[in-house]
Amino acid sequence: MSDSDDDPPQLSAAAMAALQEFYTEQADEDRKLKEAQTGKLEDFTPQENWQLSQFWYDEATATRLADEALRVVGSTGRIACVSSPTLYRKLRDVKPDNCTVKCLEFDDRFQVYGEDFQFYDYREPLKLPADWKNSFDIVVVDPPFLNEECLCKTAITVRFLAKDKIILCTGAVMEEVVKKLLNLKVCVFQPRHSNALQNEFRCFTNYDSELLDKS
Ligand SMILES: C[S@@+](CC[C@H](N)C(=O)[O-])C[C@H]1O[C@@H](n2cnc3c(N)ncnc32)[C@H](O)[C@@H]1O
User: Which residues line ligand 1 (CB under 6 A)?
Assistant: First the structure.
């Protein structure tokens, strides 16, 4: 570092390296966003933004949830992925052509999914297209926060969207509230995330699922 006040400030080698890494990650993210906007959506998974409580499923979890949702709805059903964009992405890749999947998300980076994207803020739980009322064969939801207020408002959305079947992924600590608000029971299968989380996560359903009732 220079002693003179007139000299521009110098960064240490470690700070330079960290800055360089940041710029490289940003450039990579921008490239993926651009590719996604021009139609190449295969590997579009933006970086987790922890301010938005974003923790993406690992591949095995996204696959298990997608397989279960498709098993339930069949080849022409409707699936709502609420606050679960990586499940939406998996379903988009593997679903039959006549199956409809919607991505209800707060993070507008997922607008790249075009008409499948629906902006959603759990704090306005019914600000959704009126004709979506009880129109989804299954609703899969992973609320952003582990508290009763968030789950309570999210539950209003889920009841509005669902014909009947629901899969909810959230922290194990929410089990009693989940039972009270939505009457779901805990499954054997445990959702996992690509960046390991400290909190134990669980999966809850309001129906018996062979696929989710094994580890
Ligand atoms: C715990 S993560 C679940 C993501 C899921 N594990 C996945 O891999 O797709 C919570 C999700 O809620 C979204 N979210 C953040 N704030 C929200 C809000 N106010 N309303 C609804 N969703 C929100 C985040 O963007 C994130 O996708």
Answer: 52-57, 83-87, 105-107, 120-123, 142, 144
| Statement to judge: residues 18 and 86 lie in one domain | no
Q: 152 exposed, middle or buried (CB, 10 Å; 0-12, 13-18, 19+)?
A: middle
Between helices 175-182 and 148-161, what is the axis angle to 10°? 40
Question: How far is ligand 1, taken at its centre, from the CA of residue 46, in Å?
Answer: 13
Residue nearest to atom 26 of ligand 1 (CA): 54
pLDDT of residue 20 exceeding 70: yes
Residues 121 and 184 grouped into a single domain: yes
Q: Domain range holding 177?
A: 50-205
Q: Which atom of ligand 1 is nearest to the CA of 191?
A: 6
Q: What are the tens digits of pLDDT across the range 62-103?
A: 999 999 999 999 999 999 999 999 999 999 999 999 999 999
Q: What is the pTM of this model?
A: 0.85
Nearest CA to ligand 1 atom 16: 52
